[in-house]
Amino acid sequence: MGITEADLRWWLSGYDVSQVMIGAVASHSALQILHGAKLEGFRTLAIAVGADKRRLYSAFPGAEPDEWLMLDDYKDLMTQVEWLRKKQVIIIPHGSLVEYLGADNYSKLELPTFGNREILRWESSREKQRQWLENSGCKTPKVINDPRDIDSPVIVKYAGAKGGRGYFIARDYRDFRRNVNLDEEFTIQEYVLGCRYYLHFFFDPLAEDGYQVHGIKSNAGKVLGRLELMSMDRRDESNVDEFYKLGSLRDLREMALEPSFVVTGNMPVVLRESLLPEAFRMAEGVVSTSFELEENSRGMIGAFCLETIVTDKLEFRVFEISARIVAGSNPFVSGSSYSDINEKGMSTGRRISRCIKKAIETGNLNRILS
Ligand code: ATP
């Protein structure tokens, strides 16, 4: 069984909240998280395997943690929980933590963790994600169930592949047969042509002003909290982003080259302002629906990202949702064109620590952790 609200209350009852430490695995978005935590006045702790990481962080004194927990294997974190609780640590989860521990271990990690871990189950299943997004009023790319029905470009995605590794584009059934690895579980999606924008939002269930989100169904009409747009990025993907330099698709096939989608970096983006209402409508739908994913769901808490493609008809297609801080928020350590409007220098990492700080001040820590 996973962590319950009673577990969380029990751990927090042993915490001296004036001594809370913000902890993160030193990878992914940890520089931003630790830097933001320091700015909000927290002590910090980083978790790593291998001395190289520690050396690397010494290159960034603004994010260097007050303490390190060095492990032989990330899975050993499961045995360090009591020590970490004695240190009053709150863990900020990111993609690498979940990947290194495995989803199952992560759901059982006996440490106060920022956000709602329940949502991981929805996020890690493509089918559940699609259901969630569609119930939220987001348009998703069409799914092709039978490869023989491929009659326009599709993207084939393997389950559990990270950062687009191994994905390929097929133009027809022959293409698909030539490239597919039938030993792996895969999904075939319509290839949506357009610009890829990753929208980084933050949902604060404790804030009572700003863009308020209202509940639906079981929470009909109830004010659930405040939605904020933090920043936006697009990704550099190797080699698809540089493919055009080698000629036409036909030339490339003659060279036996296929595009790949391995993320290598991120770049800041702003959206044309006329698309912002739709971006907020989608994000609001995702938050409202998150409270209906399961009976008594605690819903979305904190950072989430809608991964979208905007077509030349100015329509969004949402191909994925991440319910935690994403690495695409890293270009915005000192704020973004959106977050700066409200407060200069507010990164998503810092926003998380601000949320924790406010929750400590108002005695609501249990409402934003799991
Ligand atoms: P991560 O978990 O790191 O976000 P992932 O392995 O789940 O990555 P996706 O984000 O689903 O992979 O997709 C990787 C890349 O493939 C996207 O950034 C985008 O360039 C491309 N892509 C995904 N789905 C589509 C689609 N339906 N049409 C066109 N391109 C797509």
List the SSEs and their pairings.
Layout: H1 5-13, E1 21-25, H2 30-39, E2 43-49, H3 51-57, E3 67-71, H4 81-86, E4 89-91, H5 95-101, H6 103-108, H7 119-123, H8 126-135, E5 154-158, E6 168-170, H9 173-179, E7 186-190, E8 195-204, E9 211-214, E10 223-239, H10 249-254, E11 261-268, H11 276-290, E12 302-310, E13 316-322, H12 339-342, H13 348-362, H14 365-368
Parallel strand pairs: 1-2, 1-4, 2-3
Antiparallel strand pairs: 5-6, 5-7, 8-10, 8-12, 9-10, 10-11, 12-13
Helix pairs in contact: 2-13
Describe what you observe in this structure:
The chain has 370 residues and is an alpha+beta fold. The chain has 3 domains: 113 residues, 3-Layer(aba) Sandwich (Rossmann fold); 147 residues, D-amino Acid Aminotransferase, Chain A, domain 1, CATH 3.30.470; 74 residues, no CATH class. The chain has 14 helices and 13 strands. Strands 8, 9, 10, 11, 12 and 13 form a 6-stranded antiparallel beta sheet that branches. Strands 3-2-1-4 form a 4-stranded parallel beta sheet. A 3-stranded antiparallel beta sheet has the order 6-5-7, with helices on one face. The model has no long low-confidence stretch (mean pLDDT 95). Bound molecules: adenosine-5'-triphosphate. Adenosine-5'-triphosphate binds next to strand 5, strand 7, strand 10, strand 11 and strand 12.
**Number of E strands:** 13
CATH topology of the largest domain: D-amino Acid Aminotransferase, Chain A, domain 1
Main sheet summary:
6 strands, antiparallel
Count of domain modules: 3
* Morphology call: globular
Strand content: 15-25%
How many alpha or pi helices?
14
Spans of at least 5 consecutive residues whose pLDDT stays below 50 are none
CATH class of the largest domain: Alpha Beta
The CATH H-level homologous superfamily of the largest domain: ATP-grasp fold, B domain
End-to-end Cα distance, whole Å, is 14 Å
Q: What structural category do the secondary elements indicate?
A: alpha+beta
> Helical residue percent?
25-40%
CATH architecture of the largest domain: 2-Layer Sandwich
Q: Please trace the helix and strand order, writing H or E for each element.
A: HEHEHEHEHHHHEEHEEEEHEHEEHHH
Small ligands present: adenosine-5'-triphosphate
Q: What is the mean predicted local confidence, pLDDT? A: 95
